[in-house]
Every structure is written in structure tokens, then in C-alpha cells.
Amino acid sequence: MTRGVDESLLIETMSLRKRILLSATLITFASGAHAQQFLPAHCEIQQSTLTYLLTTALETVVSLPDADGSLFKPNAPRMWAAVVDRNGILCGISKSSADAWPGSRTIAIAKAANDFSNDLLALSTANLYGPTQPGSLFGLNNSNPFNPIFNAPAHDLETGKGYVVGGIITFGGGVALYSGGQVIGGLSVSGDSSPATLLARITRSRFGCAS
User: Fold this and answer.
1) Does the domain made of 47-205 have the CATH classification 3.40.109.10?
2) pLDDT tier at 32 (50, 70, 90 boundaries)?
3) Are 200 and 57 in contact (CB under 8 A)?
4) Would you list the domain boundaries of the chain?
5) Secondary structure of the chain: what % helix, strand, coil (to 5)?
6) What is the DSSP string of 85-143?
7) Distance from C-alpha of 194 to C-alpha of 121, rounded to nearest angstrom
8) What is the pLDDT of residues 65-117, one digit of tens each?
9) Which residues pair with 175 in a beta bridge?
10) Among 132, 152, 154, which Cα is nearest to 141's?
11) How far apart are CA 180 and CA 200, in angstroms?
12) How many CB atoms lie within 10 A of CB 175?
């Protein structure tokens, strides 16, 4: 009787060890896959174009006349800009001064990440405002939330670069970038009223990469 109990305990112990080993293997595999997922990727927008976008976008918007609906009179350099490539990878962010609103860092990234445009239809973030009111597309702005692990202090211009950070905003300031009639990414500005940030569309039209 004792021998039977001992054998039963041995079998249970071996079974438990197998389950623990299997669990550890799965955890290790999942951790590796998770780590692989969060390795930084290469932005497909050329560095020279990216630099031009992130400097000219801000300079153009903050230098426009007061008639654009800006909250600041005259326009004050408190703006953020962001660029993502067609894969949604954050290529870069910039700000026009140390006094740029900290909260607009995330908003700018989320505006640029708006990925509802294609080669036949350009949809800015402003275009999404009406359809996302109670009606056919209500709730769309909850479909692709910004990943909070990429939140960072206002002085940080690096966190999130090389990653798909997500985000969707349904008011003005984010536009698609086109080259040769094809979408290559998204550009945004944030830190002022929607009428002012809508001028990202004007800025885009001045870029050599826009069609």
C-alpha cells in the first residue's frame, strides 16, 4: 500500500515538474517574442527629408499671421511636430521652444500616426471630426490608442523613435505625406487651436516630398 502511494506521489511530482518546465519554456519564448517586437525599427523616410519636415513644419506654422485663429497673439513658438512613416514607425519629433506644452508631445505623435489615408484618398485628422461624432464612425478614436509606455517628459525628443507608438486624434493638425502620388507617412503639428494646426496641410504642400 505504501509502495503504491509512493509511486503515485512520484508520478504526480514528475507531472508537476513537466508542467513547470513547460510553463517556463512558454514564458521564455513569449518574453523573447515580446522583446523582439519592441526592438527599434528603421524609419523609411530619408533623414534629410525628415529634418526638413520637422524644422519647416514648425517654422511655417509659427510664422503665419494672426488671422489663422491662433491662441497666441502674435503667434508664439509653442508648437510640436511629429513624423511617422507608412508603417506607423515614429521617425522623429521636434518642438519650437522649451515652452511648448508638454501634453502636446503625445498629441502631435498621435496625430501623425493617423493611418486612414491611402493613395486614392487623403484623410487628415480634421476630416475625421465629423464622422466620429455620434453616428457611423462614433468610437473610431478608441481604435488605435497611443501606447502609454512611450510617454516621456517634455524635454525628451527620443523616446518612441523607431517604434510603432500608435495613436489617433480626430481634430485638426495631422495630414498624410505623399511622394509620387503614394502615401509615405504622416506629419502633424500640435500646441495651438485646431484652425492654426490645420495649417499643417499648407505646410505639407510646400514640401518637395508632397505631390
Assistant:
1) no
2) very low
3) yes
4) 1-39, 47-205
5) 40, 15, 45
6) ETT-BEEEEEESSTTS-THHHHHHHHHHT-----SS----TGGGTTTTSSSTTTTGGGS
7) 21
8) 665 666 766 666 678 899 999 999 999 999 888 888 899 999 999 999 987 88
9) 187
10) 132
11) 19
12) 31
